[in-house]
BTAD domain-containing putative transcriptional regulator (Lentzea sokolovensis), 254 residues
Amino acid sequence: MPWRRGRVMLGTAEGRTAMREADDAHLVLLGRFELLAGCGDVTLPKGAQRLLAYLAIHHGDGVSRQAAAEQLWPECRRQRATANVRQALWHLRRATERPVVEPSVDRLRLSPALTVDFCRAVEAAHLVVSSAAPAAEDLTGALSRDLLPYWADDWLAPERRRWEQVRLHALEAIAQHLISAGAHLAALEAAFTAISIDPVRETAHRTVIAAHLAQGNHGSALRHYQQYRALLHRELGVTPSAHMTRLVASQAAL
């Protein structure tokens, strides 16, 4: 599915209003499931929600009906699972004035008229990591949200792991850009968001220390290092890397 570009803010009230005014549909997968179209939220049965989310996350060249059936309803017999896909498609066709899934005999794909916050966030994150573009103003907020956190579907597990790595690398890249720009508070917020996702990730803690040092707050950098060292010892029985230790030692006496 092609991502729609523009200044619409990811996951914000302004973004939702803009999407509605443009008469397009917008799918929210970060933090919750929500389909927005026309003048309000669209109510869908669970099966239709799951199919729409699955197609959004596997947007590429589309997904075969059989693959969707097997992944979404693995506990069902093949005939029943295929019937569930047909029923979900029926609900999706009736849900909005403009179709959110393109009709096809074999492969299913989202309509280009449907934008997805998850897809936009992934695209923006890759651009930030590659330094091809600055971060959108609200990207840190989008990166702080889990992918469909209240769903227990097995097929989501590997997608959540991929999303975790994307957001961690992007948040650290954002923090580094902000340190270079002298925006130290915003850099710390991005780095601490990464730490909230993976509390023992050294690169995120190293970024916090770098932000403190850039401000000249050597004591804060040393205190954070000591807290991280204690966390690693308590949780994993290991110590910070020599690189991290040298980073702090070069600025403060340990």
